[in-house]
Amino acid sequence: MAERRPFLLRMDPEVYAALQRWAADDLRSLNAQIEFVLRRALREEGRLRGDDPAVAPEGPPAVGDGAPGATGLQAPGPTAVPPAPDAPDDEGGG
Predict the structure, then answer these.
(1) What is d(CA 48, CA 78) in angstroms, rounded to the nearest whole number?
(2) Which of 33, 40, 53, 80 has its CA 20 to 30 A from that of 94?
(3) Confidence band for 27, pLDDT divided at 50, 70 and 90
(4) What is the C-alpha R_g of the chain?
(5) Is 64 left (phi over 0), alpha (psi -120 to 50) or beta?
(6) Cβ pair 71, 63 in contact under 8 A
């Protein structure tokens, strides 16, 4: 795991309470929620280094980045579906 730097942060009590509720809703610690919000803002503004493997610059969220429902899995691509047994074929015989 990457090294974490301790940092004292002063904030408005209303902002603190809102972040605490949001963290509880997402089953995160307050610290993890603050980091999640900051990372998302940095990514959206293009200010986060692109070589950080924990943050995908585009596309679906990386596994474990904290986004609700984020699994890092994408839906499978299009697949060929065989015609129904009673469907006419396209060879002109029908």
Answers:
(1) 33
(2) 80
(3) very high
(4) 23
(5) left
(6) yes
Q: Is 39 exposed, middle or buried (0-12, 13-18, 19+ CB in 10 A)?
A: middle
Is this structure's pTM higher than 0.85? no
The whole-number average pLDDT for the span 28-55 is 86
Question: Across residues 21-45, what is the average pLDDT?
Answer: 96
The domain 8-63 is placed in CATH, from the list 2.30.29, 1.10.287, 1.10.10, 1.10.1220, at 1.10.1220
Q: Mention every residue, 6+ apart, whose C-beta is less than 8 A from residue 20.
A: 30
Q: Residue 54 CA to chain centroid, in angstroms?
A: 11
The residue ranges of DSSP E strands in 13-94, in sequence order, are none
Rounded-to-integer distance, Cα 56 and Cα 47, Å:
13
Q: Report residue 79 as tokens.
A: 């697949």
